[in-house]
Amino acid sequence: MAKHPKDLPQIQSLLNTQSIVDVSDRFSIAETTMALRKIIGSLREDLLAKRISDLPNFLSPDFATVVADKIQATRSPSLVPVVNATGIIIHTNLGRARLAPQAIQAMQKAGLNPSNLELDLATGRRGSRHEHVEHLIQELTGAEAAVVVNNCSAAVLLSLMATAKGRSVVASRGELIEIGGSFRLPDVVEQSGAKLREIGTTNKTRLSDYENAIDDNTSVLLKSHTSNFQIVGFTSSPNRRDLAQLAKEKQVILIEDLGSGVLVDLSPYGMDEEPIVSNILKVGVDLVMFSGDKLLGGPQAGIIAGRADIVAQLKSHPLMRALRIDKLSLAALEATLQLYRPPHDPLTDIPVLAMLSEHITEVERRAKDLETKLLQIGCKGIAVQSSKALVGGGSLPQKDLPSFAVTARLQGLSAKDLASSLREAATPVIGRIEKDQVLLDMRTVQDGEISLIAEAMAQILK
To answer: Are residues 372 and 428 in the same domain?
Structure first.
């Protein structure tokens, strides 16, 4: 006889059975109760939808195993490593920048041991966590001073609150950006307590627009680097040097939100659209903000560099404590910045920059290595083809990089199903779908990850 939802047992009666008591002794009553509710709830839905007509033996060891497996699944880490085979180097959904081994080691030391995070070892008195990286940022950017918060949006918010609260901020309409997660620059300005004064049009803003907008209540000229989009065609905007000169003459502050930010020249690799931080400060921008986990290649952080008097205001602002960088990110950032100093070569030692600058022949070699491994385990429809990788992370929106990808097809599986199966592997593999086939782009895959992709495909074949 077909079962009905009323035939499902009560949770408490199941908790009193010996096999389930054993499960709750192994885990906890709370976890066991939650697992039983989910299982019984799922069975109820299946009965009502007529997907099943019978019920399991709730007293059997097999049912207790199902409950235990359900609990164990909830105890597994939610945040896990994946193989980035998308070809997007700074992939926001996949954690952005890979950290260098030196940064990982620094985080481990800072986490395992007490440290002089806020202790001046010379005097024995309380110190500042900002001092651990400030001298490095000064050296690498030419800034008079620097401070670091937990991300670049926080850097913008803090800078505006400290310099423009209750006053006006002048910004070009063409630079009122929106970043991931629908966070909009005008909203950040509003939250800072400043009043936004928009000037120019979407495609054209002149120096005279800034000049005409400045009045006795103006505190800041805000420039935002449009790193996640481009407007092409009939466009114009004043150069930074002229804008800096205007700000100086009118005694207002020129702030630039770079979003991403580079410390080295990437133009030899065809990436000259992204301005170098030191060059921006050199032409007279008072304060510049940029991310630590994008083209810099470090952990999530918002770096603020520029005039010493303004940075001092930020350091003493009440909001600083809420936005300060934590010790693990600080340790990783210091280690990453050290890799920009000789004898290190950041284009070799920092993973993001290494991927950006890697010669195409190395990418092709990895693609052929993966092709060979997949053919050896019996995969059909495997081929190497040229591809286009992307910088990602809101950086260089129109810039793609030459790459090679392995195209994968498995008989009986659509591209969507294959991509889904790869995501369910022991180490999830994240590719992209083009023209009804899965592409595994090798610019973002490291040598040691080739075997992980092969293992994932082997499991799918089985």
So the answer is: yes
For 367-399, write each residue's pLDDT tens digit: 999 999 999 998 888 999 999 999 987 656 557
Indicate whether 11 and 135 sit together in one domain. no
Please count the other Cβ atoms lying within 10 Å of the Cβ belonging to residue 143: 23
Tokens coding 354:
């290494």
CA distance 103 to 107: 6
Taking only the tens place, the pLDDT of each residue in 297-317 is: 999 999 999 999 999 999 999
Same domain flag for 157 and 238: yes
Residue 15 lies in a domain: yes
Task: Copy the structure tokens of residue 226.
Answer: 């449009």
Rounded to an integer, what distance in angstroms lies between the CA atom of residue 394 and that of residue 259? 8
How far from chain centre, in Å, is Cα 456?
A: 25
Full-model pTM: 0.88
Q: Are 357 and 287 found together in one domain?
A: no
Are 190 and 58 in the same domain? no
Domain that holds residue 429: 83-91+353-461
The 3-state DSSP composition of the chain as helix, strand, coil percent (nearest 5) reads: 45, 20, 35
Cis ω on the peptide bond leading into residue 402 (within 30° of 0)? no
Task: Please check whether residue 96 lies inside any domain of the structure.
Answer: no
Count of domains observed in the chain = 3
Q: How far apart are CA 131 and CA 333, in angstroms?
A: 12
DSSP H or E stretch at residue 45 = helix 29-48
Is 385 within 8 Å of 378 (Cβ atoms)? no
